[in-house]
Structure prediction request, 138 residues.
Amino acid sequence: MSNLGVYAAEIKRTLAFKDVTEYYGIQYRNGKALCPFHSEKTGSFSIKNNYGTCYGCNWHGDVVDFVMSYFRLDFKTAIQKLNDDFMLGLQIGHTLCRDDKKRIAEERKRIEEEQAKKSAQKAQDLMQIERLIRQFAF
Prediction:
């Protein structure tokens, strides 16, 4: 993966699709929006698993794809725009040294571990709630 790919992966991991599209003026109602890529009266643009999809024109993509299509930019310029607009502080255009790659990998691992802990805590909380419901249901 090139350095641009590393930056794109970091951007996709960091930014929520809905936040990006709303920042650029897309308005959602009941989970759907008017597609910015074709003319329509009823919203057919939706989000699932941090990807946007239009069932009218069959557009599908992530935040980088969206910015590329919406602003008609190339891959590198779209990444730079997202980095600048959302103040991510990525040093795009600079060669990543081994320490940078290691730092990014460590941060990703830390976040994944944090998410795993939250998920485990949520499961424990649900089990406790179920126990309480069973206890007081009778």
Summary: The mean pLDDT is 88.
